[in-house]
Amino acid sequence: MAARQILKVSARAFVSPVVGGSSGGSAAKSSGGGNPVTIFSPSPSTKLTPESRSRLAQTCTWESVVVEPCQEDSTVSRFSFFMPSGEEVSFCAHAAIGACSFIANKTSVISADGNLPMNSDDDEQEVVTFIAAQERYNKYNAFVRGKETELFMDIEHYESECDNNGSSLSLFLKEIGLNEDDINNDAKATTFLNSSVARPKTLIPVKSADRLHAATAPTNATTKFQQMCESIDSTGLYLYDSSSTTNIECRQFPKSSGYAEDPATGIAAGALVASLHCRSMNSNDGGGDGNRVQSTTILQGTAMGRPSKIKVKIDHYIPTSSSTSDSSHRGTVKISYTGLVAFDHVSYLDESELS
Predict the structure, then answer these.
(1) Is residue 9 within 8 Å of 345, Cβ to Cβ?
(2) Please, what sign has the CA dihedral across residues 49, 50, 51, 53?
(3) Residues 126, 277, 248, 217: is their CA dihedral positive or negative?
(4) What pLDDT, on a 0 to 100 scale, did the predictor assign at position 45?
(5) What is the pLDDT of residue 18?
(6) Which of 258, 274, 286, 354 is the most buried (most CB within 10 A)?
(7) Which long-range contacts (CB under 8 A, 24 or more apart) does 152-156 make?
(8) What secondary structure does DSSP assign to 146-186, as a single string?
C-alpha cells in the first residue's frame, strides 16, 4: 500500500453565506459558491521539488497552493501558488485564505473528510503566519475564526491607463457582449484602467447590475482574448456595478487561467477597492483622509450560479510622493480580505504518482 505522503484537500474560498434567502451551513455548503482551490500538504518526510509542485498543480482544473513548513522558521508556513497550467505565481488571495483556514482546522477537516458545516460564529481565533514562496521576505498574517478567515496585507498599489495598441475599449466590450452605452460615464477615472495590488486587472464600470450580468464570457478565452489582454498588459477584465458603493457586484474574465470566468477574485477585488479609495481621497467631498477605514463587500459569481462574497477593508492608504520615479505607483495600502471557506473532499497522493 502506498504511503500517505501528500494530503490533497478540495475547498472553496469566499463562499457566500446566504443563498436563496436562507443563511447558514447547508445552504451555503451545497450552493457551489466560492472560488475552488486545491490545497496540497506533504508529510514532513516528503521533500518536493519545483517540478513536482508544478506537476501537482497540473492535476487540478483551478488554482492550487502547496503548504510546507518554512525552513528558516518552524512557526511560519510556506505557500507556493500555482495556476492549473503548472505556472507558479507570486500570490493568490483565495488560495491563501483557503490554506490558512485549512491549517487552523486541519484535524477537523481530515476527520470529517472535508464535510464540515459552515460556521463563522466560532469565538476562538487562531493566527496563521505564512510567507509566499516567491516573496520570501514578506510575512503575512491571517486570523481564522471557525471557517471565516481574515487575511492582512501591506501591499503596493499601481495604476496605469490602458494602451490601446489596437485593443480599444469598444473591442473588449464587443468581445463580452456589451457596448459603450453600458459604461458609466461618471466613472471615467476608473474606465479601462489597469489597477494592481499583485497582478494588473482592467477595471470597467458598468451602469447597473442588470447590464453587468448581461455580459457574456469570451468565447476565445485562451487565444484571441488572451492576446487582447496581453496587448494592454492586463491579466483580465474586472467589471463592476458602479451604481453601488458598499455592496458591489463584480465579474472577472481572466486572461489565461484555463476557464472563461472566475467566481471570486481576491486580488481584483483588492485592486478595485484600492482604486475607488484613491479616487475618494483625491475628491473634493471631504474624503481625502488616508487614515479613513473603507469597508466594501464584493459580490461575485452570481451570473455563474456560484455566489461568492469578499469583504475588503482598507485600514490605511499612503499616497506615493510626487517625486517618485515610478509614475504608475499610487501608494502603499494596509488591506484585509475576509471570507468563508468550505471544505469539500480529502484524499491522499503518493509522490510516485507524479512521476
Answers:
(1) yes
(2) positive
(3) negative
(4) 87
(5) 56
(6) 274
(7) 152/334, 152/335, 152/336, 153/197, 153/270, 153/334, 153/335, 153/336, 153/337, 154/332, 154/333, 154/334, 154/335, 155/197, 155/198, 155/270, 155/332, 155/333, 155/335, 156/197, 156/329, 156/331, 156/332, 156/333
(8) TTEEEEEEEEEEEEEEPP-TT--HHHHHHHTT--GGGB-GG
Distance CA 329, CA 319 (A): 9
Residue with cell 453565506: 17
- DSSP-derived 3-state class of residue 272: helix
Q: Name the maximum alpha-carbon separation found in the chain.
A: 69
Query: d(Cα 128, Cα 79) in Å, to the nearest integer?
Result: 12
SS3 222: coil
Cell output for 217:
464570457
Distance, CA of 65 to CA of 79 (rounded, Å): 6
User: What Å distances lie between residue 59 and 124, 152, 219, 233, 324, CA to CA?
Assistant: 35, 30, 24, 28, 43
- Of the candidates 119, 115, 234, the one whose C-alpha atom is nearest the C-alpha of residue 167 is 234
Count CB neighbours of 72 within 10 A. 9
E strand or H helix at 101: helix 93-104
- Quick one: which H or E segment has residue 108? helix 106-111
**DSSP-based three-state secondary structure for 273:** helix
Q: Please, which residues have CB within 8 angstroms of residue 100's CB and are 6 or more apart in sequence?
A: 128, 130, 142, 144, 149, 151
Q: Are 42 and 5 in contact (CB under 8 A)?
A: yes
Mean pLDDT computed over every residue of the chain? 87
184 CB-near residues (< 8 Å, 6+ apart): 191, 205, 206, 207, 242, 243
CA 6 – CA 44 distance, rounded (Å): 10
Strand 35-42 versus strand 126-132 pairing type: unpaired
Measured from the Cβ of residue 289, the count of other Cβ atoms closer than 10 Å reads: 11
How many angstroms separate the Cα of 71 from the Cα of each of 67, 77, 147, 258, 312?
12, 9, 28, 32, 31
Q: Give the pLDDT confidence score for residue 132 in this predicted structure.
A: 94
Residue 57 CB coordination number (10 Å): 24
Integer-rounded Cα Rg, in Å, for the chain is: 20
Asked if 2 contacts 350 with a C-beta cutoff of 8 angstroms, the reply is: yes
Q: Which residues of the chain have pLDDT under 50?
A: 1-2, 19-30, 120, 284, 286
